[in-house]
Amino acid sequence: MRQLATYGNYRPVLRIHPQPPLIFPVPPKQAGGFSLVEVLVVIALLGVLSGVLIGWYASYHQDVLQKVTRQRNAQEIVSIGVCATMGGANFVVPGDKRATIENLINGTIGQTGLWKGKVFRLTSLEPAALPGALEFVTFDANLLLYEPAGGQL
Question: What is the pLDDT of residues 62-83, one digit of tens each?
Fold first, then answer.
């Protein structure tokens, strides 16, 4: 049998098959969602992945930090070298960049101008840090020059 229902001022609606009420609720096994074990496995995998990524990032960060330190040491070498050259200090070993820089580490005394008698010494640079800094220093016409790109061994 067909029933016509009216709703306020609206036209009648034909109801062919009314929805029967649910007698039994949906069993829990058919309900959607994740089990506790699945959630714990996902959390463990995320923990392992984050540990690997943090380790990789820390290693990359350490490499960049070491390069910047070597560049800064090279800048300090060149800065003291330019000042000592202007002061007329006798520290240059022609053709030997390493020996010239070692003279700056040991200290040299200015001979002319306002810097006469002043000591030029790289106090903050240790000899162990010298090989890394040499990569960024060029030696041209007995002058120490800074080369930001490096590769000047």
Answer: 888 889 999 999 999 999 999 9
